[in-house]
Amino acid sequence: MIDKIKELIAEADAFTTQSQEEVEAFRIKFLGKKGLLNTYFAEFRNVANDQKKEFGQAINQLKNTAQDKVNTLKEGLANSEEAVSSGDLSRPGDPVSIGARHPISIVKNQIIDIFSNIGFNVSEGPEIEDDWHNFTALNLPEYHPARDMQDTFFIQTNPDILLRTHTSSVQVRYMENNVPPIRTISPGRVYRNEAISSRSHCFFHQVEGLYIDKDVSFADLKQTLQYFTTEMFGKSKIRLRPSYFPFTEPSAEIDVYWGLETETDHKITKGTGWLEIGGCGMVDPNVLKNCNIDPEEYSGFAFGVGIDRIAMLLHQISDIRLLSENDVRFLEQFKSAL
Ligand code: DAH
């Protein structure tokens, strides 16, 4: 009988299957109420005393072997069922949706890279700003008519607090807290009380640039902008058109020569070949004074460019509203971008 049990142990040990039913049949055959084990346990009392020990050990071994086998087979089947339902290793996996960077972030990061290559750091300031940093320190005292150039959202209960209308406010904060030489760019969101259309929105993004040191000249400004447009657009021809900003003197609008080769070139440049990307100028001595920098010792330049505008140009986005709606069908298209 002991030999028979040893055969069964070998049989149980060798058993394998992929089917739930066969595992169950195995279990019933060995461990079921009327199964082999119970039959042998019942035989136990008929076994001769001197064989009881060996016999007992044998059926215990059979029991453990059969029980372990059932457990491992069941576990294996459960795992492979899970694998089948969640994508078998041999099947193509379920598509995993990876995110894409927002076009504003893509362009912002490019601008940061370009300027960090020439020693500019990145600074930030608050979007909820006070009158001093957004206007007064930038040479725009109360009642200055140029304040109307930027339709401002004020906080109703406190006219001193507003949503910043430009990132030039960060210039002021940076100069107040640092000593020259200063080379910084400040990307961020700005707000204007404007009617929303395909071309304008009540918030958008700018990058402010500021360079303050001894003997900084307009030539440095022009050279820096030219470097920027070459890196950003692959266009090195720029034009600085005289303009007016209260915080710079002299001031200029920055135009890039885009070309007139394609129909799109004609469309986006309105037939002129030139494209305006921002404003710039030499920091007004009053602004330096307001920020505790001596204009007799230091000079500098500043500029401000629109990130949304650049993103729209580079990625041929025709409606600025797409940049804030966060429609995944739009955003998904930037997966292959940086
Ligand atoms: N702050 C200006 C605006 O929002 C842009 C600008 C113009 C920034 C000239 C400058 C600058 O730093 O020098 O329209």
TrEMBL record:
Its EC number is 6.1.1.20. Residues 107-333 form the Aminoacyl-transfer RNA synthetases class-II family profile domain. Keywords: Aminoacyl-tRNA synthetase, ATP-binding, Cytoplasm, Ligase, Magnesium, Metal-binding, Nucleotide-binding, Protein biosynthesis. Transmembrane segments: none annotated. GO terms for molecular function: ATP binding; magnesium ion binding; phenylalanine-tRNA ligase activity; tRNA binding. GO terms for biological process: phenylalanyl-tRNA aminoacylation. GO terms for cellular component: cytoplasm. It comes from the Bacteria. It is an enzyme of class 6 (ligase). Binds 2 magnesium ions per tetramer. Mg(2+) binds at residue 249. It is found in: Cytoplasm. Its cofactor is Mg(2+). It catalyses: tRNA(Phe) + L-phenylalanine + ATP = L-phenylalanyl-tRNA(Phe) + AMP + diphosphate + H(+). Tetramer of two alpha and two beta subunits. Belongs to the class-II aminoacyl-tRNA synthetase family. Phe-tRNA synthetase alpha subunit type 1 subfamily. This is Phenylalanine--tRNA ligase alpha subunit. The lineage of its organism: Bacteria, Pseudomonadati, Bacteroidota, Flavobacteriia, Flavobacteriales.
